[in-house]
Design a protein that fits this description.
single chain, about 110 residues, about 70% helix, about 0% strand, mainly alpha
Length: about 110
């Protein structure tokens, strides 16, 4: 707890400087054109989209087999796209959690 306003102001300034320095350091990775976004796009196109295509093809084969056996499967809709979208969001969240939280000043000024 600070009792001097000038000391508290310096403390708040130091935290702001720390956050600004961290944001500058993270910009190449988490900024709009950073490596995180590039990696996400590549992960989506190289992994997720291929998983969806393969999964839907496999499920279409199952529906075809059901039809060949005389079983009804006409109302079946593949859920692979939804599952992979959920996997993509989870992976994105996991990586994004590696970022440090913004520092906040928790020491107060008591007059």
């Amino acid at each position: 707890m600070f009792t001097n306003a000038a000391d508290h102001a310096q403390y708040v300034r130091l935290i702001a400087e720390e956050n600004a320095a961290y944001e500058r350091a993270c910009a190449p990775h988490f900024g709009a054109n950073g490596t995180f976004h590039t990696w996400l796009n590549s992960y989506r196109t190289e992994v997720i989209d291929r998983m969806i295509s393969a999964g839907e093809a496999g499920e279409a084969a199952v529906v075809g087999q059901m039809a060949a056996m005389g079983l009804t499967g006409g109302g079946y809709r593949p859920t692979v796209a939804f599952e992979e979208a959920n996997n993509f969001i989870q992976k994105m969240s996991d990586v994004y959690q590696l970022r440090r939280k913004k520092a906040t000043g928790w020491v107060e000024l008591r007059k």
